[in-house]
Amino acid sequence: MHMQAVELVKRLWDQVLLLDDSKKLVNLSGTPSRLLFTAAELGIVEFSKHISCCSVAHRQKKIFNLIYEIGALKDLIAAYKDENNVNMLHLAARLAPLNRLKTDSGAALQLRRELYWFKEVEKIVQPLYAEMKDSEGRTPHILFTEEHKGLVREGEKWMKDTASSCMLVATLIATVMFAAAFTVPGGNNNDTGRPIAISERSFLVFAISDALALFSSATSILMFLSILTSRYAEEDFLESLPNRLIIGLATLFISIATMMISFCATLFIVLDKSVPWVSVPMAVVACIPVTLFAFLQFPLLVDMVSHTYGSSIVFRPRNHLLY
C-alpha cells in the first residue's frame, strides 16, 4: 500500500504539471507550503522528495524556495538520488520544458535563467553530488552543456544581432555629434574665433547635450563591441553579457535623448529671433524618436535588468505559515 501511495503521488503530480500555470499546485492549495509542510509534519519523505524534484525539473521557483524552509528535511531532499544515480543537480542540468522557457524573451535570457537555476540548486546539494556521474557517465556540468548546446548557439546569435543593430545606431550618433561640435550653431566671431551665441543659455544647453551624446554613444559602441568579441562561454550569459547589454542599451538611450536636446537647442539659437513660433513645435516633434525608442527598446532593457538584478530576489526564501 505504501508503494502504491507513492506511485499515486507521482501520477497525480504529473497530471498537475500538465495544467496551465494558473491552475498548478500553487493555486490548487493556496500556497505550496501547506502540502510540503504537512508532508514534513507526517514524515512522508517520498511525497516531499517527489514534489521537490519536480519543482527543479519543471522550474517551479515558489516550491523550490520552500525547500529552504523544511528544516532537516531539506538536507534529505537535497541528497536525492534515484536508481540511475541521477541527483537533484542532474535534474537542474536538464533543459527546462518549452512552456517554462517561453516565459523569458530571447534565447540569452532563457539560458541565463537556466544557469541561475543550476547555480541555485548547486548551493543546496552536497559538494560530492556536483561530480557524481549518472548511469551514462555524465556529471551534472557535462549534462548541462549537452542539454543546452542549442540554446547557447541561439543565445549567441540573439546577442550578436542585437549588439550589431544597436552599434550601428550608436556609431551614426557619435559621427553626427562629433561633427556638430565643430560646426556650432550661429557661427563664430571672425576676430576671436569664439562662437557668437556663446553667451546665450541655449548654447550652453547645446554644448552640454552634444558632449553627453558623444560620450554616451562612444560608451555604447564600446559595450556592443565587447559583446561582439566575447568568447560566449556558458558562464558569460550569467553576468558578463547581460551587464554589457544593459549598459549599452542605457547609454544608447541617453545618447538619443541628448542628441534630440542638442537639436532643439540648435533650433532655438538659429530660429528664436527670426521665426520664434517654429522652435516649440519642432521641439515637440523631436520628442517622437525618444518616445519610440522607449516603447520599442525599454521592454528589453527592463527584462535584462529584472533578470540580472532580480534573480536573487526570486530565489529568496520567505517565511510561510502552515495555515
TrEMBL record:
Keywords, alphabetical: Membrane, Transmembrane, Transmembrane helix
Presence of the UniProt keyword Transmembrane helix in the record: yes
One GO cellular component, as annotated: membrane
Pfam family, any one: PGG
InterPro entries: PGG_dom
TM region(s), chain numbering: 163-183, 203-225, 245-271, 277-302
Source superkingdom: Eukaryota
Signal peptide: none
PGG domain segment(s): 156-270
Descriptive protein name: Ankyrin repeat family protein
